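Morning!

This is the sequence you dropped in the shared folder:
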Amino acid sequence: MRPIAALVSAAGLLSAALIVPASAQQTPLKIGVLSDFSSVYSDIGGQGNVEATKMAIEDFGGQMFGKPIDMVAADVLNKPDVASTIARKWWETEGVDMIIDLPTSATALAVMELSKRYEKVMIVTDAASSDITGKSCSPYTAHWTYDTYSNAHTVGSAIVKNGGDSWFFLTADYVFGHSIERDTGDVVKAAGGKVLGSVKHPLNTADFSSFLLQAQASKAKIIGLANGGGDTINAIKQAGEFGIVAGGQNLAAIVMFISDVHSLGLKLAQGLIITEAYYWDLNDKTRAFGKRFQERIKRMPTMNQAATYSATLHYLKAVQAAGTKDTKTVMAKMRELPVKDAFTDNGTLREDGRMVHSMFLFQVKKPEESKGPWDYYKLLAEVPADQAFRPLKDGGCPLVK
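The structure's back. Tokens below.
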């Protein structure tokens, strides 16, 4: 028979174990970055998103609940099945708590389904389809940077107001491109303009000649580029070779990034009207972050890279404030806390998963206006969140009552 004292001691230990704070029982926090490291979107996200995630972890202090914060990264090859396979492995066997980035809308929507199944946090900072917070919304997904609705309503409406009232779309043939064409077309038609047609091209297209000829033949005042990254760069370069702008038509880059302007050069990009959620030279906070980022990766951050920093930092703050990694508790805390950082100082996360914030309308400078590398934009307008993003009631998200 065991001594009574031993039994009491054991009972006391058991009781003590039962009242250990939840935060002390947590396993190490682990973040997974699912990105494009090798294809058309690698410049706007890719290694820059990994670096931005690391910066957020470092700025937070590197630890959560007394344990080092871990990070893993993988290339999704812009394939939904590859993205799903990696996400499933991370969530099932590798202890990943949150996945961030997702370079295309198709990969984002695929991983969102797994996020629902595993009840894990997912933050989209690269993919842009407005369906992510619309009909496909999820209680576990946040959409951080921009979307096809926000860009269509800032760039599209500005161009139509300035006389660009007939459009033809060059559209990437997957969810993202279709969403841009749909959302921008709605803006054009609502403003009294016309959509004369569109042509679909495969993702990562090298030769745009046949597509540009169709756009040229449409006689539309505006050729809307419903694509992104390398596809946008190639389309603009080849449009210059075809003399499209010289012939009287104009290009509208509905989704464009500072890395695209850098690749094109100001001679080709000058005069383009674009929208971004972040620009390194907006204010003291954006400049400080931009310069820190540039020191690490030798390029200024895109809005997606700045957003990845913001979203990671906000997630970490929410976990700390919640005192737990529990997904539902953390998501509630993410919605409760304001988003104030180098990316935005007026962000809030809505119940449909959309993080709303100001968007900015820029014009690309002429070469002679630029003071040096990465000095590319003139600010035309700051568009408030309630004007830039789709109203909560209009998205068709089943979570919105």
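Headline: The chain has a mean pLDDT of 92.

More detail when I'm at my desk.
O.
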